[in-house]
Amino acid sequence: MSLSNLDVQKVALLARLAMNEAEIADARIQLSGIFDLIAEMQAVDTRNITPMSHAQDVCQRLREDKVTSSDQRELFQSISPQAEAGLYLVPQVIE
Questions:
Q1: pLDDT given for residue 53 in this prediction
Q2: What CATH number labels 5-42?
Q3: SS3 per-residue string spanning 26-46
Q4: How far apart (Å, rounded) are the C-alpha atoms in residues 76 and 81?
Q5: How far is CA 24 from CA 20, 32, 37, 53, in A?
Q6: In terms of Cα–Cα distance, which of 3, 78, 85, 14 is closest to 38?
Q7: End-to-end CA distance of the chain
Q8: 87 phi and psi, to 5 degrees?
Q9: Where are the domains of the chain?
Q10: Residue 34 region, left (φ>0) first, then alpha (ψ -120 to 50), else beta?
Q11: From the CB of residue 10, how many other CB atoms can be counted at a distance below 10 Å?
């Protein structure tokens, strides 16, 4: 895809970038290269390719689902300023 300096100026304006003529020319070359690469990738026939979630055939190790910590609710509520029936009491904020 061929871009003009005017196209790059419009993009720079939308992105709120201040660019001089040399920077615009450099950006035009770089953006044209990116768009050419995108066009090249879109030309590849991928109809018979199965989608994959990862580039390598890996599987995640899963740990056993078991409780590893003890119940410390009583300890935590014992140091709370106010607790009642297993709940923390807090001052009313909204009137």
A1: 80
A2: 1.10.20
A3: HHHHHHHHHHHHHHHHHCCCC
A4: 10
A5: 6, 12, 20, 38
A6: 3
A7: 62
A8: -120, 150
A9: 5-42
A10: alpha
A11: 12
Per the model's pLDDT, the better-predicted residue between 23 and 55 turns out to be 23
Give tens-digit pLDDT for 51-95: 888 888 888 888 888 888 898 988 999 999 999 998 999 988 887
DSSP 3-state of 57: coil
Q: How confident is the model at residue 15 (pLDDT cuts 50, 70, 90)?
A: very high
Instruction: State the pLDDT confidence band at 1, using cuts at 50, 70 and 90.
Output: low
- Give the span between the Cα atoms of 56 and 10, in whole angstroms: 41
Instruction: Please tell me whether the overall predicted TM-score, pTM, comes out greater than 0.70 for this model.
Output: no
- C-alpha distances in Å from residue 66, one per residue of 28, 31, 60, 77: 57, 53, 18, 25
